[in-house]
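Tutorial, part two.
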Amino acid sequence: QVQLVESGGGLVQAGGSLRLSCAASGRSFSTYVMAWFRQAPEKEREFVVAISRSGGSPSYADSVKGRFTISRDNAKNMVYLQMSSLEPEDTAVYYCAAGRRVTIGTMELGDEYDYWGQGTQVTVSS
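Running the prediction step on this input gives:
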């Protein structure tokens, strides 16, 4: 069992930055692919980025490439999402997710993830 708790969301002006954190409890954190998804009001949940078990090979959605950076610290059971050059379109609830069986071919599929956090709100004003 893994519990995920996100933090770091808030209100920021367009062009600003935020850093989200996801704290994971439970054992074997390094055996999980970790990802961030987001859901805007009245829209479906969408993939943002995923990172491999070792911390390499991040995979980003086209909409955030060059602006967002994911990282993880397996010693601290933490995942981070550094968001820069934020746009109003980035406004959403951001969710951290953990998946044990996720592969390169499935990391964008939310149904492949086993555990989810409660989400943290990010609001970008224009």
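The longest strand covers residues 18-25. In part three we will examine how such features are distributed along the chain.
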